[in-house]
Amino acid sequence: MKISQTLQQLQINDSRSAPYQDHNSLFSRLIFTGLACLASLMLLGNGPVPAPPVFSHCTLPPTAQLARANLLQARAQAPSPPPSFPASPDGSRPSFKQIMDAFCNFDINGDGLAEINSLTPMQARPEPYIAQPNGVIIVFVERRIVMDNPATGTSGTAMKLMLDILGNDLFKDGYYPYFVTADVYAGPRHQDGRTLLAMRRFLQQVRRYYPLSATLLVGSFPDASIVRTVLVKDGASEFSAKSFLSGTAPFSGYTGYYLSIASEEITTRAEIILGDLDGNWEDLYREHLKAVDYEFLPRTRSSMFPFENEVEQTGTYNRYERCFDDVFHIVDHNMTVGVDRSLFENTVPPNIPARSAEAQDIACSDAFPPQTLTFSLHSLAEPSPEATAADKQLPNRIARPEIVVGRINPLSIAIRPIAPVSDSGAGPLDASGVPQRLVGVHYQPAVIWSRDPDIERRLIVDYIARAHKFRLGGDRNFPLRVSSIRGPDDGLGSPHNFNDLLRPAFGSVTPEATEVDDASAVDFVAWLKQPAVLRGIAAHSDRVNSQFENHPAARDLEVAAGANAFGEGIWRWVYALNGAANTLTPSFERMPADVNFYVYRTLWENKVLANSAQMFVIHDGCEVMRFANSETLPYNDIHYGQRDDKGAVSNGESLMFYANGLGLMARNKVFNDTPVGFIEAVRASGGRFGYGWAGYLNAEASNQNMDERAVDPTTPDRRHRTLQRKRSYFWNMIGDPTLRLSYTNPR
Q1: Using 50, 70 and 90 to split pLDDT, how confident is the model at 81?
Q2: Whole-model pTM?
Q3: Under CATH, which number does the domain 405-414+452-551+592-735 receive?
């Protein structure tokens, strides 16, 4: 859609313009940017030091070389001094521009590699700060999104026009929005968490002087990953007997209890790090981490361990080494092992002086583990090193956010089919851009997809336009309704119970409710067509697919998705062998249960949902929000968020951007929780969907049933609480967090 058509459809009236309508030349901004960078460098004085060696994932160098790299990393982790600002004659606070200038070429750890290249106002002449009832929202806009690109049909100026519409909407919704064009690190080094920490530093400075309440990231920005190491009392049964292979007394076929120290990358999209502005996250960042985990059998009777101040030796254990890149490491136990004084990681703890004798010895050892293992359990309480003193006063010591966080980033799903080319010279799309059958593709069994910046911009424009229309009351004629759907039961909550969870979001107003159980993919598409502003989805899922019951025939799903004729209008191809005339035919054949990008893209291209209601969704399937390859690749890698080049892309983003989503709350881990407290926070905020994310974290912090200290450490309940109590870190929300569920009195 052309930008002019979008503006006409939105019925934008110039007489309604408020602060965010300035589209003048960028010339003055560019001049000031250069001067500001120079002044900022003089102000901060960040001197470069040699960068530590970059090691590939789980490939460790010799011990001596690693130790030297760790010492350099420890020095690099010294916090940079906070920016200082010239005193104003009237004692006023610094402007947003002054704060941004202090982060030009900002190098948070002094390694000579800037995490922030520049932060500049998106508008040529932004309006002065005006106090608003809902506070300040910082909108980071990826610089690439607002630059002209000949490969797109939407210019940088047109993108700014749409973002100005968003700014007007936020202002009229009670916020003071400040749009920041952000140019952050996007190189080959895997340091997304460190770059996010630099952006967090900027938000901390804004909050120091202004009532910051939210941030929204438009475009592609880094994500944060958390590795958590815990101590639990685990068990082996006769059906899953345990073997301990190390030590003086190895044992096979053991059944009963044992102790386990285990590390897991629990989330790769930890928005809590950006939302929690006073937590201790900087101390926990590791660019490279080698965690040393153990399973061991103490000599104390199993009914008694673990216990406070336990010190034991054992000759029956397993030792594992696990490597992680670019993570925040939460060591949530108080046990040390005699040979691993670094608390189970290969980096130097920040509190040890870099030149001390102890630091020189801390490194991953290539030596065979000792025959006898000595461990000391100093305390049964889990330390929660990320939490503040105030957080630790609550029953469940977890980090709590000061601001809400949202993202509008369709990059990973903005793809187009480009290959193969048939013997006749035809590509996957015909001259009108419609999928077509390819005959004579030889042994090329799948269509290849490639990222398309034009589709990316179209999806951002489409989202802003839909949100704008919704704020103006565009869905006022649809019934106020909640609706839930479930695929195969398999232990998932019922749609009836899901609706009971959703209903209170509207306060004293009781919405209608509909539900669909044992749904097939065809049922799911029909469910999307029926209006409901707040929805729940219970379906077993992964990073790419959500699974429903098998549908009777692929043709039924094709018709439901808008394909009027066989082999046309389906954005998925099926390969068939036919000698020299091997074919690729648009079809949903061989996909009996999955709903994924192919289905959502087909709905979008065929405009099946164009006149349907907008929606906010809670999806409790596993890994819906977990990007493919997020554990191993930096955010700017072309394969980030894409399992392969055949269309296996992000589940959550596909649902939101291609199926009328305005907000999506979902998990990015395999787990079994539902976000209790989410809906209550939405209601308390006046219906703002994104505030539910913070509500879940706050509710979990006060959850007495998650206090592991309150139960006997020798019982299974202690293990349950240890593994469950930071489950709220697994969830994140995409979309504009300030949007309300209903605008019954539109502006």
Answers
A1: low
A2: 0.88
A3: 3.40.50
